[in-house]
Amino acid sequence: MLTSKFGFCQARKYSLTAFLGLLLSLSSHLVAQPDSLITLHKATSSLTPKTRNILILPLIARSIETDWSAGVAGSFTFRFNPADTLTRTSNAQVLALYSLRKQFIAAINGATYFPGEQFILNYQISYSYFPDKFWGLGKVAPDQNEESYTFRQYYLYGHLQRKVRNRVFVGFQYEYQRLLGIDYQAGGLFDQQQVAGRDAYHISGAGVSLTYDSRTNAFAPNQGGFYQILAIQFTPMLGSQFQYTSYTLDARRYWRLYRQQVLAVQAFGQFGAGDVPLRSLSSFGGSSSMRGFYDGRYRSRDQIVVQAEYRIPLFWRIGAVGFAGVGNNGDRLTDLNLHDLKYSVGGGLRVALNRKERLNLRVDYGWGLGQSVSNGLYFQLGEAF
């Protein structure tokens, strides 16, 4: 889950453990998610094949958020000890992207699994200049409310985890975000709703995590589970201009069924308490959650999503998937009810780029259903979750 916001995204950076999916959907407060990606050329070089691999992808991309864009993406995967088959493969990614709308995104992120997985380090650094869209805050945001705005942002995130027992990790995380400026329509929704963070600001926060991870593979799991709780406090004591707490709950389960078919299910919740600024609000949609919705179509303090995906190998390196999701958002926990629910359905294809590491190229088409209907094409590396 490399995961929103190149302007694509306001989704959160907490999905950093997943890896190449985050490559083009870099975590929540960064940039904006390209819905469609066309690979022009792929060059791979293998350095000591059993331990290291480099993947370079010059690319052209297109999405609702970006229009046409061009750039380069690179991925480096490695193991400290090739004989240690119990430790998952480490990875690092670099991305630079420029669009016809003069949007620019540059990012580095990765996950390092130290020997025996005694420690796991997830990190992300990015800069984004991104025109985005805003429909207002809350669970009801009519299409006619749509306004454009542009933000410039630096983002830094680190998450170090320590194994305390088999498959159980405790961690420390730090996040820094600097909004250099937000250009928006004066007197519009931002001013009418008194949106916190509509002017330049910075935040700084630290927190803890607890994780249980029994997945057989970090890129495309077919068995096991992943259960994580994250809490991070933003406070003036750490130099933050806003004081609030963010909580994230992420639960995933994978079942290998008939002839290598896999059922994957995820329940995800993000909750904020305090004075949460614009780019830290929960963001609905994107390439990893509720596919078919514009990333950031609904923004609020709280959101919860439940989604499932059925993965079927077809022939050679080709596979197919079908997925569906349901979710809701709001500024209070009581808003997370059955009123104004949002739905997502769709399907796609998979092409195995690296069978051993289970690294797939995915092409998904999703429909977002609810108060309005939307759709999107996603062409990316790595599974959605």
Describe the structure.
The protein is an all-beta fold. It has one domain (6-381): Beta Barrel (Porin). It has one helix and 22 strands. The protein has an 18-stranded antiparallel β-sheet that branches. A two-stranded parallel ribbon has the order 1-2. A hairpin with a 3-residue loop joins strand 5 and strand 6 (67-78). The longest helix is centred in the middle third of the chain and has 4 residues, at 189-192. The N and C termini lie close together (7 Å). Residues 1-49 have low confidence and may be disordered.
Order of helix and strand elements from N to C terminus: EEEEEEEEEEEHEEEEEEEEEEE
| CATH architecture label name | Beta Barrel
SS-derived structural category: mainly beta
Termini Cα gap: 7 Å
Radius of gyration: 19 Å
What's the number of structural domains?
1
CATH homologous superfamily heading: membrane protein fhac: a member of the omp85/tpsb transporter family
Name of the level-1 CATH class: Mainly Beta
Shape estimate: globular
The major pleated sheet works out as: 18 strands, antiparallel
Helix content: under 10%
Number of helices: 1
Low-confidence region ranges: 1-49
User: What's the total count of β strands?
Assistant: 22
